[in-house]
Amino acid sequence: MKPGRLACALAALALLVPACTAPTPAPPVAPTPAPPAPAPGAERGTPGWEITHPGPEHGIEGYADRTSALPGDTVRLFVSTTAARFTVTAFRMGAYAGSDALRVWQSAPVPGRVQAPAVVQAPTSTVVAPWQPSLEVPTGGWAPGDYLLRLDGDNQAQQYVPLTVRTPFNACRIVLVNALTTWQAYNRWGGYSLYDSPSGRKPQRSRAVSFDRPYQARDMRAAGDFLFFELPMARFAESLGLPLGYTTDVDLHADPHLLDGARAMITLGHDEYWSSAMRANVSAARDRGVNLAFLGGNEIYRHIRFAPSATGPDRVEIDYKSFGEDPARLTDPLEATPEWRSPPYPRPESVLLGNFYQCNPVHADLVAAAEQNWLLAGIVHTGQHLRGLVGDEYERVDLAVPTPRPIDVLFHSPVTCGGKPDFADTTYYTTSSGAAVFSAGTQYWICGLDPGCPQSGGDAAAGAAIRAITERLLRAYAAGPTGAAHPAADNLAALGIH
């Protein structure tokens, strides 16, 4: 047995739980070990978790006082509703028999009330919901994972409040990261987001957005991007029975030790907004041998920083999308918020990803380019098309920016975006630490894990290939640093990439 595997096994035996202890010094009072997630498919899920009656706008909506919780934490919910009474039902989302969800808790009926209207804070046009707490949700006994708290009013209105119950320690785990900063950037509750304003004029958009507000009901039933860009991966990864950790990008920002001892970190389908600490912590983990996988097509593009709100730390996400406009240029210029690739301090995302964001929207086939690569061998052949799985945003290898070498291009897919022909590239590179880095280069990779993927038209061959490649990747990643066993073999010249 390799030394890293032996250490994990010994730690697991010592704890008599399937997690490992963290390699960092223990805190004064050790937290209670989290209950393990159920074996995949062993527990029957709960049907009827879906929202069937979203109701009128503002019929019921809410937010939590934290983006993630440790098992046993108490979470406060802030709810506004026209209903006289409502209940909250907590569903853990994942690989259950007969359903994507398991009901773990339900509140007693709670008196409803219409809370104060949204407040728009100058000068950043930051929308907050200045509400009073409605109830507390206990999480004792909850397994780590992705949760949806469903609000059900007696006015027939329903909405979700997403919550991640994070893994206390991630040693020896594949860590799935919910991209909350991207969810919040696009959240238009109260009329403003980092893109839009009530007038429709983008120059009047927010420069900072707050987690102290609900997600807009039209945005995936107030569940951010979770249902489309993240749930299929969580469900698939759990179905393999591998040791998983759960966290959010806000936690990745706050805790430089979050990935200590982890086997791998996986970001999901739309993970665009990154802080300096997020990027530094992930880069350091890679350089310690932690494998990485980026399963979207527009990661590490927007540079953000955080500020506290009245509710707690890291509740305000700041992005001016401009160096010249951001007041931080005068006090801490490296924390000003143009795109990561933009001057005066360009730090292209390709340094970490391998590929480089290009354009949107596109919709094209994935085209295999390296059947000899260990991830593709025996699954697809060079030139094979996987229907409809490039889009909506994509990345390619661009040697005009810093690019790790050696690097394999696994899929080299012709696209046309903005009237210009181009290629979308799925890439794989390895590092001297032994870490492997996979970047899908398309937002629809995770859709391919869903047998009913609308982007592929449910194409069975495409779905089978994506599931087989992803399973091979995750199983290799679970064994530890993958680069030693599967080093990258640069194929750029053979593809005409110069």
Automatic annotation (TrEMBL):
Q: Which residues form the signal peptide?
A: 1-22
**Residue spans with biased composition (Pro residues)?**
27-39
Keywords, ordered alphabetically: Signal
Q: Does the keyword Lyase apply?
A: no
Q: Which residues does the UniProt record annotate as the domain N,N-dimethylformamidase beta subunit-like C-terminal?
A: 87-453
In this chain, the stretch annotated as Disordered covers: 27-66
The UniProt entry, under Pfam families, shows:
DMFA2_C
Going by the entry's taxonomy, the superkingdom of the source organism is recorded as Bacteria
Basic and acidic residues: which segments have biased composition? 55-64
Q: What is this protein called?
A: N,N-dimethylformamidase beta subunit-like C-terminal domain-containing protein
* Species the sequence originates in: Amycolatopsis methanolica 239
Q: What's the source species' lineage? A: Bacteria, Bacillati, Actinomycetota, Actinomycetes, Pseudonocardiales
